[in-house]
Amino acid sequence: MIRDEFDYVVIGAGSAGCAVAGRLSEDPAVEVALIEAGPSDSNPAIHVPARFWEQQKSTLDWDFESEPEPALNGRRTYLPRGRVLGGTSSMNTMLYVRGAAEDYDSWAAAGCDGWSFDDVLPLFKRSEDNARGESRFHGVGGPLAIEDPAVPALLSHWVAAAEEAGHPANDDFNGEAQDGVGVYQVTQRGGRRASSSTAFLGPNLGRPNLTVLTCTQALRLQWIGGRASGVEVDRFGDAEVVRAAREVIVCAGAYLSPQLLMLSGVGPADHLREMGIEPVLDNPAVGENLMDHPGCFLNYPARIGAGEGKGWVEAG
Predict the structure, then answer these.
(1) 72-103 pLDDT per residue, tens
(2) 273-291 burial by CB neighbour count: b if 16+ within 10 A, else e?
């Protein structure tokens, strides 16, 4: 049985949830529960960067697919999402890329006080332990390890060719601008993945006020007078309720957060009624306006020069 009540209940131990739970539990006066549908991140394929692909379509992957896409001639596309501590930060390709400054500034201009790029940059820097050292855009000493990857000769030739073709060079996609060609920094340290779990959660698991509930599927939010008071979960086949004295924080990702809200009665009221769900709050924006970034990968054999052998170029 899960204890009756916590101060904060965080749903989803992914990129956001691990960071939120880790930060909240810095206050020893509050009790924090972190709920994750998947298992712990003990699988070696998570931590060895070159083995990331082994997780795809495995028990560590939600293995979603899209609805038939008109722009793809009606085909569905695979949507990999981590189902494990660390979420997709435990199975992605570890490129370290923040949002564009213009996006944050547009949110602030639309009325989201405190969300301009100048507002959020100190928080990014606080989270970083960047191997390049401290600068205007980067920080050191934070929990998330970031470094420059080893660059094979072939990649150096590829970048040089792109510059020769007229594309601007960019040695920091989290610096002045994101346009250009160069080599991404990665969330790694010493040949190991740095996920949200290893950065924000793992070092804090010994805190007595932090409870991590793996293999626990959030089913729907509980309400008292229009306020989220807890979440009903499936834990090893048993239905239980985890209650929150202060806040329920939904961090289930771009796909599962709106799904959980709609299952809980928050979303387009007419659609919810069609699905047999009684609306709690009519919000037509829930579940809308998703924008993804599909990629197309092309492989070419290439000889990179006398004495340098053969290699493969991957263009995305």
Answers:
(1) 899 999 999 999 999 999 999 999 999 899 99
(2) eeeebebbeebeebbeeee
